[in-house]
Write a structure and sequence with these properties.
Length: 337
């Protein structure tokens, strides 16, 4: 007889729950709950004499959406930030560094005398919320707290709340989105990471679950058919325009240099922004199209007066109810023997 496993909500609740941050597995658990591109989880964790190394899993790279692996290293930075916060919660210090040899790795040297950071408590609550927000503004004190949380060595956030400037950035979002959606290779890569129903999301433990984007649950064959039929420039641009117009503002993570070490720093800054927003009851979602397409990235850089600094990630923020959570693979699947 076929037995039904636990449903998506039960699996998500078990995943997004505390572990002991004093253990290696506990640290990796918190690290894997970080934001990451397409929820591809292109990371591996290795125990080292000093603490932990985070390595790229290039078999999970996104060659079309992320041809230079920028997002892959930024996602490793998001994970590294969560891991450092978890170490702090266990009273340990965490010194993060980037070693460029080979494909590069983030090293985390664990020490004694770590101080807990309140952002740790937001790790289990954080989520990307890809819905229409309620349009309410974010108070100036909260904006200042977001800027302060995201400011780290080599990377920081620029917040945009001026409607005229938001409208200018929206034009770049729509131009970049149109270029991506019209590219069959981009659509095929995205489709391979979509999980059209709870069963597929639970079985894979990765990818983009339709419910987390507000889409209906469908059998896989029907989901793929509907995607082929309805994933088009007009529909996608309309959705992003409505989402952005409902938001309180935009956040641009930008970094001092365009290299893998700074992509990691940008990821850390982005994760801290997301955690601080969560702690303040502010939702966020990524709108990275204009930083993924080289031509619009240059236009965004110039529009925002960033000079040589690279715009790494673009997010919107505001207020909305939570959405269904996304899932992760088990910790054992991402630990190097
Ligand atoms: C570097 C990076 C790029 C991302 N790009 C996008 C994006 O363009 N669009 C989007 O909706 N989400 C984007 N995300 C969010 C991920 O899809 C999300 O973190 C992942 O699906 C896991 O979901 P969760 O953050 O709610 O746990 C990005 C995240 C990172 C770290």
């Amino acid at each position: 007889m076929l037995t039904r496993g636990p449903g998506h909500a039960a699996v998500a609740a078990a995943l997004w729950s505390p572990r002991d941050p004093a253990t290696f597995e506990g640290l990796v658990h918190y690290a894997t709950l970080a934001a990451n591109s397409h929820n591809a989880q292109a990371w591996r964790f290795r125990r080292t004499a000093e603490g932990v190394a985070i390595l790229p899993d290039l078999g999970r790279a996104l060659p079309v959406a992320d041809p230079d692996d920028h997002h892959l290293y930024a996602s490793m930075g998001c994970a590294a930030e969560n891991l450092a916060l978890a170490a702090g919660a266990a009273g340990r210090s965490a010194m993060l560094d980037f070693m460029p040899e080979g494909h590069g790795r983030v090293t985390v040297a664990l020490g004694r005398d770590g101080a807990p950071d309140p952002l740790f408590h937001a790790i289990l609550e954080r989520q990307c919320t890809r819905s229409i927000y309620d349009g309410r503004a974010v108070p100036a004190a909260d904006l200042a707290a977001l800027e302060a949380a995201a400011r780290i060595d080599g990377a920081e956030v620029m917040l945009i709340t001026d409607p005229a400037r938001i409208a200018q950035v929206l034009e770049l979002v729509l131009a970049a989105n149109a270029a991506q959606v019209a590219n069959p290779a981009f659509a095929a890569e995205l489709k391979s990471w979509l999980r059209f129903n709870a069963r597929a999301a639970i079985a894979a433990g990765d990818g983009l679950h339709s419910a987390a984007s507000g889409n209906p649950s469908l059998p896989g064959f029907l989901g793929r058919f509907m995607f082929d039929r309805f994933f088009n420039v007009a529909a996608e641009n309309d959705r992003y325009a409505r989402q952005l117009r409902s938001s309180a503002g935009l956040a641009v993570i930008h970094s001092a240099r365009n290299d893998a070490a700074h992509w990691v720093q940008a990821g850390r800054s982005c994760q801290r922004f997301a955690l601080q927003a969560t702690a303040l009851g502010i939702r966020h979602a990524h709108l990275n199209q204009p930083v993924e397409v080289a031509a619009t990235r240059a236009q965004l850089q110039s529009l925002l007066g960033l000079g040589d600094r690279r715009p790494d990630m673009l997010l919107r923020f505001g207020h909305a109810p939570p959405m269904p959570r996304s899932l992760r693979r088990p910790v054992a699947a991402v630990i190097d023997p």
